[in-house]
Amino acid sequence: MSLEEIRTTRLDKLDKIRKAGFNPYPARTKRTHTLTEIGGQFDVLMDEMVPVTVAGRVRAVRGHGGSTFVDIEDGTEHLQLYMKKDTLKDAYDFFLDVGDEGDIIEAVGTVFLTKKEERTLQVTAWRMLAKSILPLPEKWHGLQDIEERFRKRYLDIMFNEDVRVMIQNRARFWHAMRRFMVEEGFLEVETPVLENTAGGADADPFATHHNALDMDVYLRISCGELWQKRLMVAGFPKVFEIGRIFRNEGMSAEHLQDYTQMEFYWAYADYEDGMRFVERLYKYIAKDVFGTLEFTIGDFTIDLDVPWERYDYQAIIRHETGIDVLNTNTEEIEKKIRELGIVYNKGGMNIARGVDTLWKYCRKRVSGPGFLINVPVFLEPLAKRKEGAENLVERFQVILAGSEMGKGYSELNDPIDQRERFEEQQRMRDEGDAEAHMADYDFVEALEYGMPPTCGFGVSERLFSFLSNKSVRETQIFPLMRPK
């Protein structure tokens, strides 16, 4: 039968249920036990012949003369139901007439063990809770096309245990992150998602309009960096936020447009403190969620338990490309980019974008785990200059399997320096660099009241996807899809 023929047949069954005086979509169930609870109490329930009511989706129906076996699952476990005509009378024939795989039903009965020792519920009554109009995908193959899997994620989860486990692990990942931060004395905060100025990162923001205030605003591109640093000015010693951020940029195995990120800010700490703290954080999460510190990520084998390396930004680029990032120009960088066959965006090209393009080419060869340090000041408008090397900043990035897995720095708290860097970033924006940082002079004013030495750091769900050895798109529960 075609899909439309199956749908028509099931609509006829839906009509039969209604004409028989039953609601095929009741608001409530009389369920007394989840299927997991049935399993945990099975021996007692069987010995005492305790009547129970269960509910779940029909996943298989097998007829045997005057009896039928029905497999159901409820999101916690599965259970076999035994329906017998002698017991159910007309209700048995009614099930065979209107029931299908995919229906969600309620069943009343007592549990017993079959001759094959399978836990089973002998049904004395049943009721439809939600009639399925469309058939489930073929049992053993489910959804094969990756786009169809993402578009109908609910079916992908139903048929793919790996996806279900991934979603559970994703939740554990953020629970572990939050638990570690709270236990370390950090206060969880919430900062605005809509901003007048998109700050805290080099990224192209999404823009929208605020009708009540009649003004254009941006969806944030960081997890409240400039707001959390205002809390440092206000006197909070340790804060963090886990929230959604938005970047109007390209899609890849490592990049999305909206995703979850955690950022923390720690007063009276610097980037050395931050590196030690982040290493402990990552090991804690890996052990808690995955039960190991050893991972296969793409072509890399990673052991988080080994001493973490320190990678010099300038040295790596010089070794791989021959370019001295502190003594170069846009023309030399673009020539090298073309020599290496790197595809890049020519619009708004400047030294900062060119050097960053070279680094992204070089980092693919760096295994990690380790921290990338000694980054030029022209790449970080919000980081403190390195003492004794004023053309560098105290920035650190976690490097795992050739990619960046979090970034932090000793935060710039000199308002004069911050204003000058914002002005330089604005000049870059005016010349066509859409990812240059927007100038936020309200934030500069906050710094003029005094912000203590502070370490800040941010990590996104990309870390979870890498530790899972999957693309970041695949580890989102409902990836954004173009409408059909």
From TrEMBL:
Domain of life, source organism: Bacteria
CDD domains, A to Z: LysRS_N
Ranges where the Aminoacyl-transfer RNA synthetases class-II family profile domain occurs: 176-483
Entry note: cofactor: Binds 3 Mg(2+) ions per subunit.
EC number, as in UniProt: 6.1.1.6
GO biological-process terms attached to the record: lysyl-tRNA aminoacylation
Cofactor(s) this protein requires: Mg(2+)
Gene3D superfamilies reported for this sequence: Bira Bifunctional Protein, Domain 2, Nucleic acid-binding proteins
Residues bound to Mg(2+) 2: 404
Record-listed Mg(2+) 1 binding positions: 404
A single cellular component GO annotation: cytosol
Subcellular location: Cytoplasm
Catalytic activity: tRNA(Lys) + L-lysine + ATP = L-lysyl-tRNA(Lys) + AMP + diphosphate
Keywords: Aminoacyl-tRNA synthetase, ATP-binding, Cytoplasm, Ligase, Magnesium, Metal-binding, Nucleotide-binding, Protein biosynthesis
Pfam families: tRNA-synt_2, tRNA_anti-codon
UniProt GO molecular function: ATP binding; lysine-tRNA ligase activity; magnesium ion binding; tRNA binding
Subunit structure: Homodimer.
Cross-referenced PANTHER family: LYSINE--TRNA LIGASE, CHLOROPLASTIC_MITOCHONDRIAL, LYSYL-TRNA SYNTHETASE
Annotated family: Belongs to the class-II aminoacyl-tRNA synthetase family.
Full protein name: Lysine--tRNA ligase
Organism: Candidatus Ryanbacteria bacterium CG10_big_fil_rev_8_21_14_0_10_43_42
